[in-house]
Design goal:
Low-confidence stretches: none
Shape: globular
Mean pLDDT: 96
Radius of gyration: 17 Å
Strand order of the largest sheet: 1-2-3-6-7-8
Largest sheet: 6 strands, parallel
Number of helices: 8
Order of helices and strands: EHEHEEEHHEHEHHEH
Length: 213
C-alpha cells in the first residue's frame, strides 16, 4: 500500500534472526527499551541488547525507534504515578530529556517513541512540556512519536492526559493503538479491537489530529 509504514515491535533479548527474517515486511523496528525511573526522577539508561537490536535493524535497511514507557515491573503494569512524578517536576523532565537526547545521539536511533500510558488528566501540561523540549533538542533526523491508546470520545482523551491538537503540532507522528477495546481487567468479553470500534476511534482522533501528519 503506497505510503503505508509498518513497524514491528521487539523486546530486548529477541531471538537473533527474527529481524532479518521479517525485514522484508517492515520499515521500522520499534524497540521497547527505556522506562521512567522508579522514583520518577528521569529515565533509565540504554544498554547493549537495545543497541544490538538497533544494529540488526540497520543491517537490514530498517529504521530503529526506541520506546520510552512507564511500564513498572513493581506493579506489573503501566504505572500512572511514575508519569505524574516525571511530568510534574521541571527538574525531572529536564533530566529525562537530557538522557533521551544523549541516547539518541550516541546510539544512533532514528526515532524516539513516547509510550506513556494510564495517565491522569493532571499530566496533560507536563506531557506537552516534555515533548516540546524533546523536539527542540533532538537532532532533526530523529523522528519523535507519541503512542496514544484509542479512545471513543474527545473527553476521554482529555481525561487521559492528551491535548491532541497541541500534541499534533509538536510531534512528527502519532501512533494510535487501536486495541484493548475489551480485556479481563476492565470489561466483559469481546474483541480486542473490533473494526467498527477502530474506525470510530480514528474518526474521533481525526477531529483534532490531521491524518496526513
Amino acid at each position: 500500500v503506497p505510503g503505508l509504514v509498518v513497524t514491528g515491535y521487539a523486546m530486548a533479548g529477541l531471538r537473533r534472526g527474527v529481524v532479518h527474517r521479517d525485514a522484508h515486511a517492515l520499515d521500522i523496528v520499534g524497540v521497547s527499551g527505556i522506562t521512567v525511573k522508579l522514583d520518577g526522577s528521569g529515565v533509565t539508561r540504554s544498554y547493549p541488547m537495545l543497541r544490538d537490536l538497533l544494529a540488526q535493524a540497520h543491517r537490514n535497511g530498517l529504521r530503529g525507534e526506541l520506546l520510552l514507557s512507564n511500564w513498572s515491573s513493581r506493579v506489573g503494569d503501566f504505572d500512572p504515578e511514575l508519569v505524574t512524578a516525571l511530568l510534574s517536576s521541571p527538574a525531572h523532565r529536564r533530566a529525562a530529556v537530557r538522557r533521551i537526547v544523549r541516547i539518541a545521539r550516541s546510539d544512533g536511533w532514528d526515532g524516539i517513541a513516547v509510550d506513556l500510558e494510564a495517565m491522569h488528566a493532571r499530566d496533560r501540561d507536563g506531557l506537552v512540556s516534555l515533548l516540546r523540549a524533546l523536539r527542540a533538542q533532538l537532532p532533526d533526523r530523529v523522528v519523535l512519536s507519541m503512542d496514544i491508546g484509542a479512545r471513543s470520545s474527545l473527553g476521554e482523551y482529555r481525561r487521559s492526559g492528551f491535548a491532541l491538537r497541541t500534541l499534533s503540532t509538536i510531534v512528527d507522528r502519532i501512533a494510535l493503538m487501536t486495541y484493548d477495546q475489551h480485556g479481563a481487567a476492565w470489561s466483559g468479553p469481546g474483541p480486542i479491537g473490533a473494526l467498527p470500534w477502530q474506525r470510530r476511534t480514528i474518526g474521533v482522533l481525526a477531529q483534532r489530529v490531521p491524518l496526513s501528519m
